[in-house]
Design goal:
Length: 179
């Protein structure tokens, strides 16, 4: 009888962890942290961001208000890093790490590349820290890009583009390597 009792105790002990591990499944991350990288010639360009989803919402002119500074991602400010000097909109962006911000509107977007790359959202954004500021025209389509997506596209050994697509909007701008 003593053996049967020990067996029952063992079974009880083995059963307990099963109930503890049957907790709720992990919560899905709604704006996963991600990054994209590209090589253009010997320049390595890295963009780090959180990628929110559309999830049936109106994004531009809704969730992201027109004519307001946006950190161009979710949570922490999006940042861009380059190991080589680039020319963007006729201005030199020295090698380094920068915050990437925008001011969306229906007609055009203002793009800001800012010295302060390590900040939550746009909380500490200050226009005086902009290294480069320029305007781009958004491309509007009927096709929805569900999750915010950045791309670094190589056009040649000395030229490329950086693009952002989300919801029905895509923006893109060219850059050149400083030789």
């Amino acid at each position: 009888m003593a053996c049967k009792q020990k067996t029952k105790e063992t079974e009880t002990i083995l059963e307990q962890p099963k109930t503890e591990t049957s907790s709720k499944p992990p919560k899905k991350v709604l704006s996963p942290h991600t990054s994209t990288m590209g090589m253009v010639g010997d320049a390595h360009i890295h963009i780090d961001y959180s990628s929110p989803g559309v999830r049936g919402r109106i994004i531009f002119g809704g969730l992201v208000g027109y004519n307001n500074v946006w950190q161009a991602g979710a949570h922490m400010a999006t940042w861009l890093e380059t190991n080589k000097d680039l020319t963007i909109d006729g201005k030199v962006l020295p090698a380094g790490k920068y915050g990437f911000f925008s001011i969306p509107s229906k007609e055009d977007w203002t793009i800001m590349i800012n010295k302060n790359w390590n900040q939550h959202g746009k909380d500490d954004y200050d226009e005086k820290d902009d290294v480069i500021r320029f305007k781009v025209t958004p491309i509007i389509t009927d096709e929805i890009t569900e999750h915010l997506e950045y791309k670094v596209n190589k056009l040649s050994e000395t030229e490329g583009t950086i693009s952002l697509a989300w919801e029905k909007v895509t923006i893109s701008f060219p850059f050149k390597l400083n030789q």
